[in-house]
Structure formats: structure tokens, C-alpha cells
């Protein structure tokens, strides 16, 4: 299928359409046998990425989704059956701003009478990140919108970088994290698969409003990630538990962000990324299998990373 222009087809408005999650949502809905019209939101419809999406039949709309721009957000959601909402912490590194923007998006979707709000908040990280997602999720629950939560696992692509894989003097590559080697994380190839889970959440009778989908291809230990990366690429890759100080320095992020990343890993080690929730049920009604870490490794080009 392709994206519909039929006015009777459900309209899905996608926040972050030019990004990894939103782009994946558009791709997955375009592959559906159900008919959807899609409106993609971006701050710049003229950029090449936005224009590429428009050629698929997506209506690309310019809007700056900041907290003081609620009216424009509401206008952008007008007529939608479904709104996909994601916030973007990494661009401004400001938690208060992220929470304000997330709440604004929920309120705007409600004001526009959207029937289903799909929210990409990850809940397990909340305790350590002073509730940034809980605030938005709690607000969304209280607001009375029909809410489907599709939580993204750890991106496999976070480790597809020379930055995450340090080359040692002896030519070995180390995957260094501040947790023990048996720490297990759920992993997702976000661009390839995140939308698959959103589609499942929207279309499968097992999910829908009031439910939660945990989007991950598999659960894998950090040591196993390093081992599989080595086996598949034929390079020597080892997992190394680094000290908290080493880890924070290696992130090269501002102190408060490095500290948050460190606390996240400590939290994953102790409580796991999705807490005690099982990821398997969320993979039961997908239209195809999501990629495992090994699948991601095989599909990616490592030549400029493991040189
Ligand atoms: N890395 C991980 O392992 C991981 C795991 C789970 C969740 N997350 C979360 O995922 C979120 C990021 O999602 P992503 O990976 O899809 O991000 P991304 O690829 O960086 O894309 C960000 C999108 O947000 C849009 N955007 C940013 N500011 C905007 C604004 N003011 N108005 C309108 N649009 C705006 C951008 O659109 P334009 O630039 O075109 O305007 C872009 O499409 C973050 O909150 C992150 O914490 C990350
Ligand atoms: C979006 O709004 C923010 C905050 O008002 C501003 O700093 C930024 O320049 C705006 N971006 C665009 C593309 O209008």
C-alpha cells in the first residue's frame, strides 16, 4: 500500500516526521493494508528530508512545536484521527522544556479532538530523570485523551558509532559502559522497526487505547552485544565495565546530562529498562519480525567505525 489521499481515510498526524521514530511510523503505516492519510510535522518543510517524505504522499506541514505555540500545534492536529507524539530532549537538553512541550502536545491533540493519541514516552527511566516522562504520561492520562503508549527500547544505533566503540592501542575495540557485563537491555533498530510497533498498537485488537506497547527486537546483555558484534564483523570487540567517572567523561555531554546517562545505566542494571515488564507480548501481533541486535549489526556498515 501507499499513503492515501482519499478524504475518507483516517488522518494520522506525526510529530517528528523527519526523525527516527516519526519517520519509522510513517514507513510502517505506508506499508499497512489499511488506508491512512498522513500529515508530517517539521520545522522546515523545505529541507531535503522533508521533501523526500512529501514525495511519498505525506502532507508536510511547517510548525514549531514549542510550549508557547499551542495554537499552531492544535491547528496542525485538526482533523486527525490519530496523533503520534514524541518529544525531543537531545536537541535542547532541558527537561523542564521537554515536559512543557510534551504536555502542550497532549493538550493540543485533545483540543483538536484527536481520537487516539500515541505517545512515545519511556516510563522506566522516570525515577532517575525526575519524572520527565511520568509528568507527561500522568498529564496525558488525566487529560482524558484516548492514550496508547509505545515505549522505544535502547536504540541499537546508539552503538553504531566510533564514539561508543573505543579503539584501544592493541587494535581491540571496547564497548565501555558503567554496568556489569550481564546487564540486559531491550534493543531496537528504531528506524527499521519502531513504526512496526506503533502500527501494531493502532491496528491490533490486543492493543489500542489504554494499552502500552514495549518496542524492542530482543533483550540482550551488553557483553553479548560486544561478542556478537565481534563475531559478525570479524573484529576483536570486548565489553568493558568502565568507572562512573570514565563513562561520564566519555559521553562528552554537559555534566547534568552525563550524570543522567550514568544514572540511567545504573537504573537499567538494577531494575531493567522496562522494569519487570515482559517485552514478548508486544512482539506477538507484529506484521513482521523486528530486527535483533545481530540483524542490526549485519545490516549496518561498520567500515568507518571498526576501521
Ligand atoms: N536514543 C535512545 O536509545 C532512545 C531510546 C528511547 C527513547 N529515546 C527518545 O526519543 C526521542 C527522540 O526521538 P527520535 O529519535 O525520533 O529523534 P530525532 O531522530 O532526533 O528526530 C527529532 C524530530 O523532532 C522534530 N522536532 C524537534 N524539535 C521540534 C520543534 N521545536 N518543533 C517541531 N518538530 C521538532 C524534528 O523535526 P525537524 O528538525 O524536521 O523540525 C525531528 O523530526 C528523545 O526524546 C529520546 O530521549 C531515545
Ligand atoms: C522555534 O521556537 C523556539 C522557541 O521559541 C525558537 O528558539 C526557535 O528558533 C524556533 N525555530 C524555528 C525554526 O522557528
From TrEMBL:
Q: Which UniProt keywords apply?
A: NADP, Oxidoreductase
The NmrA-like domain, residue ranges: 10-296
TM stretches of this protein = none
The reply to whether Nucleotide-binding figures as a keyword in the UniProt entry is: no
**One Pfam family here:** NmrA
Q: Which superkingdom heads the taxonomic lineage of this protein's source? A: Eukaryota
Q: Which GO terms describe its cellular component?
A: nucleus
Q: Which InterPro entries match?
A: NAD(P)-bd_dom_sf, NmrA-like, NmrA-like_oxidored
A GO molecular function annotation here is: oxidoreductase activity
What the entry lists under PANTHER family is as follows:
NITROGEN METABOLITE REPRESSION PROTEIN NMRA FAMILY MEMBER, NMRA-LIKE DOMAIN-CONTAINING PROTEIN
Q: Which family does it belong to?
A: Belongs to the NmrA-type oxidoreductase family.
Q: What is this protein called?
A: NAD(P)-binding protein
Organism, scientific name = Mycena metata
Amino acid at each position: 500500500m501507499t499513503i492515501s489521499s482519499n478524504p475518507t481515510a483516517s488522518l494520522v498526524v506525526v510529530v517528528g516526521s523527519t526523525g527516527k521514530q516519526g519517520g519509522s511510523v510513517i514507513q510502517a503505516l505506508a506499508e499497512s493494508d489499511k488506508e491512512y492519510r498522513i500529515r508530517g510535522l517539521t520545522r522546515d518543510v523545505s529541507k531535503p528530508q522533508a521533501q523526500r517524505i512529501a514525495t511519498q504522499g505525506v502532507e508536510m506541514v511547517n510548525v514549531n512545536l514549542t510550549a508557547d505555540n499551542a495554537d499552531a500545534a492544535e491547528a496542525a492536529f485538526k482533523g486527525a484521527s490519530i496523533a503520534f507524539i514524541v518529544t525531543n530532549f537531545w536537541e535542547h537538553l532541558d527537561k523542564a522544556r521537554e515536559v512543557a512541550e510534551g504536555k502542550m502536545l497532549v493538550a493540543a491533540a485533545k483540543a483538536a479532538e484527536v481520537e487516539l493519541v500515541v505517545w512515545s514516552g519511556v516510563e522506566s527511566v522516570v525515577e532517575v530523570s525526575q519524572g520527565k516522562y511520568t509528568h507527561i504520561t500522568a498529564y496525558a492520562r488525566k487529560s482524558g485523551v484516548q492514550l496508547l503508549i509505545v515505549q522505544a527500547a535502547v536504540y541499537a544505533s546508539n552503538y553504531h558509532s566510533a564514539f561508543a566503540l573505543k579503539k584501544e592501542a592493541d587494535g581491540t575495540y571496547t564497548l565501555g559502559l558503567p554496568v556489569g557485563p550481564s546487564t540486559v537491555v531491550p534493543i531496537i533498530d528504531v528506524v527499521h522497526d519502531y513504526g512496526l510497533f506503533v502500527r501494531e498498537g493502532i491496528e491490533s485488537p490486543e492493543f489500542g487505547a489504554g494499552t502500552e506497547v514495549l518496542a524492542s527486537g530482543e533483550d540482550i546483555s551488553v557483553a553479548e552485544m560486544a561478542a556478537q558484534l565481534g563475531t559478525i564483523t570479524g573484529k576483536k570487540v570486548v565489553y568493558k565495565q568502565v568507572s562512573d567517572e570514565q563513562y561520564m567523561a566519555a559521553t562528552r555531554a554537559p555534566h547534568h546530562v552525563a550524570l543522567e546517562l550514568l544514572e540511567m545505566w545504573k537504573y537499567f542494571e538494577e531494575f531493567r529498562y522496562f522494569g519487570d515488564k515482559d517485552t514478548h507480548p508486544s512482539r506477538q501481533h507484529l506484521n513482521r519480525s523486528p530486527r535483533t541486535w545481530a540483524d542490526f549489526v549485519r545490516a549496518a556498515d561498520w567500515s568507518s567505525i571498526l576501521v
